[in-house]
Design a protein that fits this description.
It is built from four helices and seven strands. The chain is α/β, with parallel strands linked by helices.
């Protein structure tokens, strides 16, 4: 994913998508519509964010970027196989997609809320809403294609 044209992040106050130039990624930014301060911290994340029942709302629903949530379990061999793909995608999608990991054993309420019956399971969120899912072993290309409409 190319960041030469900057990044697009959503204002959490009014929902407007704002473009942040690459060279201004660390600066304080304001929404072009409502002038609220934008959460530009998410632009710099190069690794998936570990999310729990306690912070799912804050980390996923209130994210200014589209979010890929990886539901996994430590005992799952398929999850172990997908983890390097998710980590690589998080690094490459930096500033365009926020990548989160939810351990279903440690966060059973969140897994139950989204009816996660098997792992690995990937959910896509945009503007705070669940959009679609990917099940089972997934390749990076499939993830990129699934997220393309939200970037």
């Amino acid at each position: 994913m190319n960041s030469n044209n900057g990044y697009k992040i959503r204002c959490l106050s009014c929902g407007t998508r704002n473009r942040i130039p690459s060279n201004k990624a660390g600066d304080v930014a304001r929404c072009g519509s409502c002038k609220s301060i934008l959460n530009t911290e998410v632009i710099s994340a190069t690794q998936p964010v570990v999310v729990t029942d306690n912070d799912f709302e804050q980390q996923v629903v209130k994210s200014p970027l589209p979010v890929l949530v990886f539901f996994w379990a430590p005992w799952c061999s398929s999850c172990q196989a997908v983890t390097p793909i998710i980590d690589e995608f998080a690094s490459e999608a930096r500033g365009h997609v926020k990548v989160c990991k939810v351990n279903v054993d440690a966060s059973p309420m969140t897994a139950s809320k989204f009816n996660i019956l098997s792992v690995p399971n990937l959910l896509v969120f945009d503007n705070g809403q669940f959009k679609e899912s990917l099940f089972g072993l997934t390749q990076k290309h499939d993830i990129m294609m699934k997220l393309a409409p939200y970037i």
